[in-house]
Amino acid sequence: MKALLLAVKKNIICAIFILYLLLMYSFLYAQKKTLDINDLESWVSVRRGTLSANGKYTAFYKGDTNLVVKNVQSSWNKELNNPLRFLFTSDSKFLVCQHVGGRISIVSLGKDRIDEVSSVRKFFVMQSEGKEYILYLRTDGQFVVAHLDGDLMWKVDNVSDFWVQKDRGYIFYKSRSDSGYFELKKMVLNGRDPFILYRGNEPVSVALDNSGSKIAFLVISAGEKSLWYYSDSISAKAVKKDLDLKLDGYDIGGLDEFSEDGNLVFGWVKDKPNLNESNKSKTLVYSFASPRLSVPDYSGRANKYLAVWNLKDERFFKVQNRGEMLYFKAKNNMALLRYSGGDVGEWNWNGNARSSCVLVDLKNGLRSEITNGPNLDARSYILSPMGKWIVYYDSDSSDYFSYHVGSGERRRLTRNVDAVWTSYDNDDIPSAKYYNIGIGGFSSDESKLYLYDQYDIFVVDLKGDNEPFCLTGGYGRRNNIVFRFAFPPNNQKNKKVILTAFSRKTKEDGFYSIEESKRGEVKKLVMDAAIFTGPEESKYVDRLLPVKADSASVYLVRKMNATSSPNFYVTRDFVNFESISNVYPEKKYNWLTSELVRFKTLDGKDADGILFKPENFDPNKKYPLIFYYYEKISETLHFYWTPGPCEGPINIPYFVSNGYLVFVPDIHFTIGYPGRSSFSTIMGAADKLVKLSYVDSTKMGLQGHSFGGFQTNYIVTHTQRFAAACSAAGFTNFVSAYGSIIGNGYSRQGQFELSRDRIGATLWERPDLYLENSPVMRVNQVSTPMLIMHNNGDDDVLVTQGVEFFTGLRRLGKISYWLQYEGARHSVYGNSALDYSAKMMGFFNYYLKGEKIPSWMCNKSPNILSVNKLLK
């Protein structure tokens, strides 16, 4: 009996203790703040982290106003305010930070010493004979060279600029003499015996070669331009004069840099201003035969074109022509240009818009046309860093090809290779076959090419001596894991190669390793319910690769998950990670959790989505649910959504913290039916979610922006299931939108025929599809209260799209409100975003939570603008 009483007593004590813990748990959550509108603009996060060369120190930005410097092995740290830029010295003894306003801080790493210099316009840090030096130019024209430990070496007054060749310790500076002339001087670091290499009018646009033995610059005198050149073997002399007269229609703009071998100087020329342009009528005349539709630019901006100065034969010539884009410039002075004479979005029907690639020898300007492509293939052309190879993807054969620059020989590289080279993220757009994923890089000797498919990494022998093979052995495809290089393959000196890894099934992220000699034997280092680097193709996750210390096997990585801010961690093996930054602003707020939900769409397809719940979630309560959507988003399961004003899309943490569930599904599209595909997905997800006891099936809402705004408009015209919807800057009429012009002057047609809007045909080929996907045609079917945000400055989706929908809703007496922010464009920012966020919250609170109606929804008279004024 005594034992029984003792057992009962123990059980009572345990029950009391558990009850106490539950009460404390509830109390702690009750003390956490709900995100409000005032919290959205000041969220602190870390960014731009780096390591010292020895790997013992790290520095990163914390928020917008602070730089943190830390020892990764001890508690030593310093925090500097208002940083502009910073760098570690190569000996890992100092960090130099330039602040807003011109102040410089010199931090002695591991010590309490911080030296400061005020009023600095420009600085440079270099090492010579084992010592670190700082060179800086003050705003009063004083040029100073000093040891970083504080000892002054020398200083010069009346200096306006300086340049450094750090490997040999040469310093060039520009000063003004008492006679009023400018002098360009060269000297060594010790400051003895400065040599005047030029005296005259002011030299501008100065460029140095890698050895410091050559310098080139531009001089302008009374409107006359001349190029000057100095080397250790010759005195400075003017090589070319009156350059503008020898480049018809163009004017020299400046010099940029020397070539690797020091024989060429790269610069640029610009269009000459047309002095008669201001007197011309601004009438625009368009012809059906015009190669492009885009509107001429009357802003006065001049286009820039690559030009080359060959020092051996003293020729200066323009390399790049109008309509050409410089893609790659190799170390052997070869360049790859892409040309399109029309608007790129018209390539499927306009011959002028079809891209071609041109290989240019920068030594003499000789050009070789590599392709006159009939499609988007030209975007895949890549020139190797040493200039030996051009590699490109051919969409018709679904293979990669190589072009040997020296011989002109082409070779099909991936014949019979079992791989999918095209983008996973763009696999459901009409032009999907043209979007190859891209290459992983070249080996350091350019004998091998590394290719990415949707999951794995392949190795190709560019000379054709060996068959291609899958480095990862197909492990990625078999296990739904995407492998990519964590570091460029030509920079990886160790046998063990680090790979980033992302699971498309579980959404976990991490790292693997592999040795090229042991093909297929990938080794898992870490996979976690987090994001380290993130999926390569994501529209939402900012992919950030690890940073390696220059002279140590120490790495800085970023890690986050849905409940924990992005922070920096240090690792030496990619297995163990030590937190460095420790910035977690979400801990004092009622935050969120995320979980993966799998469901069936109405047409029977499998789909993934993310359900976000408040941190203080109570399964015994009923919650309102808002759907947010665009395309594929489930890769963000472990992504940290930063609180901020709603700029178009809903801000997920803001709404979840305030008691909403938010569901974000992947949309998989059928070409021709983007609206129906979205409807099928959202309705299928709703069918799954309403079975959960805590989802209030009568209080479900919709929110989407841009393409998501169109999806919202389509859904509300096809169902009465949802209690409220917010549509921001979305299409409502595919017929009128098809013929519209985007803000950059391009036709919208290609977007419907080829890409995101996914019709896959012209209006005249399939008018039924354009009508099917035009929600304005079914406004009479709307029963869902609508909040529309569409601005008169929107040059992406024209405001007339929102006008058509709203006026239809108003005409039929449908509950609807239209927000329009004066001067705003496709999205809203600043105070407009805060206002939009508050109004969206008030709108959903009224319809989904039954709270008091906001006063702005009771105002029946128009405010701010009339429709007529808006459309102007």
Large-scale geometry: globular
The rounded Rg comes to: 31 Å
CATH top level of the domain at 586-871? Alpha Beta
Sheet having the most strands: 8 strands, mixed
Q: How many strands in all?
A: 52
Pfam families: Peptidase_S9 (PF00326)
InterPro entries: 6-blade_b-propeller_TolB-like, AB_hydrolase_fold, Peptidase_S9_cat
Domain Peptidase S9 prolyl oligopeptidase catalytic: 675-850
Transmembrane segments: 12-30
Describe this structure in words.
One of its GO terms (biological process) is proteolysis. Keywords: Hydrolase, Membrane, Transmembrane, Transmembrane helix. The protein has twelve helices and 52 strands. It is an alpha+beta fold and 872 residues long. Among the domains are: 203-274 and 302-316; 586-871, Rossmann fold. It is globular, with a radius of gyration of 31 Å. Residues 20-25 and 864-872 have low confidence and may be disordered.
Highlighted features:
872 residues, Rossmann fold, eight-stranded mixed sheet, four-stranded antiparallel sheet, 12 helices, transmembrane helix
